[in-house]
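Predict fold of Ala-tRNA(Pro) deacylase; 155 aa.
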Amino acid sequence: MLSPRLHNLLDEHHSAYQTLVHDRTVTAHETAAASHVRQQQFAKTVMLKVDGKLAMMVMPAAYRIDLTRLSRALGGDVVELAGETEFKDAFSDCEVGAMPPFGHLYGMPVYVDSRLAQQPEIAFNAGSHTDAVRMPYEEFEKLAQPELLWLAHVM
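Predicted 3D structure, encoded as tokens:
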């Protein structure tokens, strides 16, 4: 089932999207494979603390975050990974670790690795470990209004 906040956002904007139902997965790699989406097109959400405040970093599943580069890109802010206990309560309509990459729905900024912008379409977790959404990247960017950065590197 889609996160109610995500579902409302997509319907409110008459967005073009497709729901992908898949076997239960936990990692972005597993979800991409179960959804039949290339790793470069599956957008994983990494939860961060930027100067102590929650933020989302969204990048292709094939990449991993470089916290030093992110800190530099943000002007020297302290950037660290957020633990589940630090962010689980922020996503009351989602399973832990399956939040969609729309930070504004949850009161936090979203940073997107610009390599996602090169994809014609992306897929991402939709609030549960059995549902994903596929949509044109341009539509995602219009809705999420992320800050584009070049940060991640291949795992």
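The two ends are 30 Å apart (CA to CA).
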